[in-house]
Design a protein that fits this description.
The structure is a single chain. Helix 1 runs parallel beside helix 2 and helix 5 runs parallel beside helix 7. It contains seven helices and eleven strands. The chain has two domains: 130 residues, Spore Coat Polysaccharide Biosynthesis Protein SpsA, Chain A; 76 residues, no CATH class. The model has no long low-confidence stretch (mean pLDDT 95).
């Protein structure tokens, strides 16, 4: 079987620290022929860090405003790729050794999409419970069979079956609490705007009880308490995320 050529899509915004810490695996992927970076006008040394880290691969760097739409940002990157097969990942993620081996030996005769399990790490600890523990993400796919949808927490939507694997991607999304709260505030704003555009409404009861339900689900039903202090911080944070979503959505209707 001939070696398959793959384009890697990366969206960035002030990611120099993550690149230096988490992106050193990139040169181990033999099939990645080009790396397409869609940068939301970073003000740090993101571009320099990428050039320093990436070896012997074609780099395409585009500056493009995110405009509160992650799906469009990724789809733009895909439109700039020269190869049909795409590996989409974030700079705070690392594919496992087995996943790297899988990508380097990919056989696309049967499936056009592959999803992988993501392991989250928070303040030095792997999170084994809660809502994020059971999530799979389609990250390797043939671009001819789908597109990304969703302004935030975007997903690959395809008209072709997806092969679900147990190969893993390690995720290091929040190096500290400040980063966690900033992302919650940012993502909840985008999601509220998206729901408003879809004419979804909310009310006082949802603002009160949906966050409570989210906490019970994550901390008790999905055993978040077994993750110790990190578990309760995440459960409360996800509950607050829902509270902000609903509150911001309600506020949009008051303008």
């Amino acid at each position: 079987m001939s070696r398959k050529k793959i384009s890697l899509i990366l969206i960035t915004k002030n990611e120099s620290k993550n690149i230096e810490k988490h992106f050193n695996w990139i040169n181990k992927l033999k099939n990645i022929e080009e790396i397409i970076i869609i940068d939301d006008y970073s003000t740090d040394k993101t571009k320099e860090a990428l050039k320093k880290t990436i070896k012997n691969k074609e780099i395409k760097f585009y500056k493009r405003k995110l405009n509160n739409n992650f799906a469009e940002q990724r789809n733009f990157g895909i439109s700039k790729s020269k190869y049909n097969w795409i590996f989409s990942i974030d700079v705070d993620e690392q594919p496992s050794k087995k996943l790297i081996g899988f990508i380097d030996n990919i056989d696309n005769n049967q499936y056009k999409n592959y999803s992988f399990k993501r392991k989250d790490f928070f303040i030095g600890k792997e999170i084994k419970h809660g809502e994020n523990n059971s999530l799979y993400f389609t990250r390797l796919f043939n671009k001819k069979y789908g597109k990304f949808i969703g302004k935030v927490h975007e997903k690959w939507q395809s008209n072709s079956p997806t092969k679900k694997t147990n190969l893993t991607i390690n995720h290091y999304p929040h190096p500290n609490l400040s980063s966690l709260f900033q992302k919650i505030n940012f993502y909840s704003t985008i999601r509220a705007q998206e729901m408003y555009q879809q004419k979804i409404k909310t009310n006082l009861l949802q603002i009160i009880f949906f966050p409570v339900g989210k906490f019970i689900q994550n901390y008790f039903l999905r055993l978040g308490f077994l993750d110790g202090t990190q578990g309760i911080i995440l459960a409360l944070s996800m509950s607050f995320h829902v509270f902000l979503n609903k509150s911001k959505l309600w506020h949009l209707y008051q303008k």
